[in-house]
Amino acid sequence: MKFVHTADTHLGFEITRVKQSDPGGRGKRADAIYQNFLRIVEHTVEIEADLFMHCGDLFNKYYIPKETLDELVRPIFNLSKAGTRVLLIPGNHERSEFPFDLFHGAKGVFVFDQPKTLSFEVSGYTVGIAGFPFIRQNSKTTFHKALEQTEYKSLRTDLNILMTHQAFDTASVGPVDFVFRASRPDTVSRNTVPLDFDYIAAGHIHRYQILDHPMKPGLNFVYPGSTQRISFAEMNEEKGFVEGELLDNRIETRLVPLPTYEMEIVEIEAAGLTIEDCSNTIRSHFWRFDEERVIRFKLTGGKRAADYPAIDLERIRMEMPPVLECQFVTQVGSRWVAA
To answer: For residues 319, 325, 326 and 327, what is the CA-based torsion angle, rounded to 10 degrees?
Structure first.
C-alpha cells in the first residue's frame, strides 16, 4: 500500500486583498507554486499511490474566485479518475472550509469538512482514516473534542491514520528555530494524542520534520512542510512531499524533494538618504538578480514614511535585470510597509 502525504500547497498565491509590491513577480511565484503541485500529482500517478492525503491549506486564501478554484483543482479530479483516493482537510488559510461546495459529489474525493472517520480496502489492507478541519481557537483543549467526534475508536482496520492541520509541541519553524511549546493555546501536546493510530499525517508547519510520540515508539507525527518557499522565514529550507509505503506491517516514508526558487533579503539604511543615493544603492545590488530568485529590499532606519526618500520605483523596475520577484518594504517604527 502506497500513499502520498502533502500539505500547505497554497494554490492561488497571486490573489490578495492587500497592496503588492510586485504583482507581476507574485504571479510568477504563484506559477512556480502551482507547478510543484502538478509535480506531486504526477508523482502520485507514476507510483500508482493508493491514497493522496492533503493535510490543509490547499489554497492560499479563502476568497479565491470560483472560476480560478475550478482550474486549480483540476489535477485533483484527474487523480481520482486515475484511481487514487484523494483525502482533503481544510486548513487555516481556507478558514476551515472549502468554498462553493467545491468537491461536492466528486467520485473518489473525500473532504473532512467535519470530524469523521473513513474506511477503505486498499491493496489487500483495510485502512481507517480519521480527520477534521483546522481548529481555529484554543486547539490545545478542543483538539481532543474534535478527535472524539470522529469516532475513531470504532476503527477496526489494519492501518489507522489521523489527518490533521495543527501545531504539535516541539515542532520548529523559521530561521531562528522557533519551537511550539505545549503551554501555548494553539499547540497540542503529543503525549495526549491517543495511541490508536499508526501514522499521524500533519500539516500547518511549513518545515519538513518528523516528531515521535512520547508514549509509543514508531508512531510519528509527520509534517511534509510547504511545497515551495512561501515566506522569507523559509528561505533556506528544502521543500518536498512525503511518499509512504506499508512494508511488513511497518510504514516507511521518505521526503521527495521539489525544486525551489532562491530568496534573498537586502537591507539598506535608507532613512535620510537622497533620492539619487538611495536609487544608486539599490542599483548596486542588481548583480544579485536572477530569474529564479526572489529579492526583498528592506529600507530601514525610519520611524515615519516621510523619513524615506521618494524614489521612483517604477523607473527602477524598468532598469532591473530579470528577476522572479522584487519586493520593497520600508521600516516604519516596528512595522514593515510595502512600498
So the answer is: 150
Nearest one of 313, 241, 306 to 282, comparing CA atoms: 313
Q: Which of 120, 116, 119 is nearest to 147 (CA)?
A: 116
Residue 58: closest CA among 17, 93, 107, 103: 93
Q: How many CB atoms lie within 10 A of CB 192?
A: 16
Contact (Cβ atoms closer than 8 angstroms) between residue 184 and residue 178: no
Nearest residue to 26 (alpha-carbon basis) of 12, 43, 42: 12
- pTM to 2 decimals? 0.96
Q: What does the block give as the cell for 238?
A: 528544502
DSSP H/E element including 251: strand 250-257
H or E element that contains 30: helix 23-46
| Distance in angstroms (rounded) separating the CA atoms of residues 220 and 253 | 11
Contact 117, 147 (CB under 8 A): no
Per-residue pLDDT tens for 295-325? 999 999 999 999 999 999 999 999 999 999 9
CA-based nearest residue to 161, from 193, 190, 188, 196: 196
Q: For residue 281, what is its C-alpha cell?
A: 544603492
- Ordered by where they begin, the domains of the chain are 2-257 (3.60.21.10), 262-338 (no CATH)
**How far, rounded to the nearest angstrom, does the alpha carbon of residue 167 sit from its chain's CA centroid?**
13
- Cα 298 to Cα 326: distance, rounded to the nearest angstrom: 11
